[in-house]
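User: Structure please.
Assistant: Input sequence and predicted structure:
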Amino acid sequence: MKRIKIVNQSAYVLFLLLLIHSGLRAAEVSATISLYNLFSPDTDMESGIKGTVNAGGKIDVKIYEKSLNVLVYHTYITSSSSTFSGTATNYNKSSLGSGATYYPNVWNSKEIKVALGSVDRKKYDTSTIRPYPFLRSNLSLRVVITETNAQMSVCKIPGIGLIDRTGGNPLFHPKHFCHDLKNANNWATIAWLKMKQPDMSKGSDLIIAAHRGVWGDKLGDGNPENSTAALAATKEYTPILESDIMITGHNELVVIHDYNLHRLTDYSGTNRDYLFNMSWSQLSGLHLRKRNMKVTDFKLLDFGALVDLLIQNQLVLTVDIKDIRARYDKTGTCVDNCDYDPKTHGEEAGKKIKDSWMAILKKCIEIAESKNALQYIAFKVPHKYSDMLAYVPDSILSKVQFMPVIQPNRSDYLDFTDSWITEGGNRVIAYETNFKSQDDLYLKSFTRAGKTYQNFLHYVYERSGLRPGCYPEEPMGPKGIVNRWADWLIKDLRTDVRGDHYFLMTIPYGKIMVLTTDRPDIWRKISEIYSNNPH
């Protein structure tokens, strides 16, 4: 509500009664806008209001630049609208005060770029910085939403994004950093917003997440995966990193894909020494190997160091938690860690696996929170949201993001997805709709609740408005791919099509997927090709 000086309690009660009777509601919030992002050619310039307006009602949105106290945007609607719409007002510059020195003589109030460009020119007059960084500043704004006999659903402002009637971004939970419009120009908000807003009108609107950084190039002679150099190189291709996190026997978190250490480090012990039985003191001195097995000077990272690198390199992270599992030989016989084998230990083993996953989740959150970095973290999750609540309270889970992972062999995949749509809500950034073969069930048409969907990717987009996604598992060199026990597996494109870049682009709704890839360099090129081909 607007701040109003109340003389006494009786006057305050009278004011509330008048306010209720008039059907008037006003909200005022602060926001931050990046001029660099506003003037980017990729910025969505759609603007307006959606809402319900009763007879004689009105929804009015005004935005002021704080330091000059000058109006920079204004629109309103006087009838209900389910699309972004709004009437602009033509203002004479002389009516807007001294802050509007460089406005055109007559300014259309929806022209926010004209207004803020003029504000930046005005700031130049008093700045001592030369050369002045035109259109590079972050500006503080005041957003005023007034509803008269009406209720706003959402407003959309270029450079700020969506605003709900409470003055926050509705794509995020109110407890999340990105919900606060003062953080609208933060790199995390910008990255997550791009992920959360797929655009089917484009020839390609892929989101690329660099799997363990940039290391898959140079025929195996690139930087080691999950090294500081591989992670720093990520920003060249994408602001989104995806890394595997494992837990030691002492409840410490390590940034690594394999439980045994020979493939990725210069560890000299046996191939049956596993990270979950070791301690960080045994691991911290190990050096990382390149894919061609050359030992480098890079050290193994713990999760805290990874969070520091996110902040340093302005990256966001999707965490792939590698829970503790049993190890099997090629015949499917358990050879190690068999108390985690559901085939022989049933529900007890299943609970141990789940508990190990949740232990990593809790520890990741604890470390990120200690560094004031929860806003940069999302978790890939194979469990229901309600399952996590038994381990971590909703008040904490609502501060991070989640990407439910639906593997191809999951028989309850639709129910699982629906549970996340219902329970997860705006805590979800996307859905990983994994598939392998062209004949996979997820790629086939189906009908649910009387509606037909082209495939599971379509279902996710239609039901949630979010992106589907997959891990396009390219074979990295002649040895193929590798599992968490560092066993090499030959890639067969007849049964696993995820390494076929162009086939993935022919899948209905594939062009809006989140792709967690070892080759962000290749996928950027593919995306560029399809971006120029709307068909």
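The mean pLDDT is 93.
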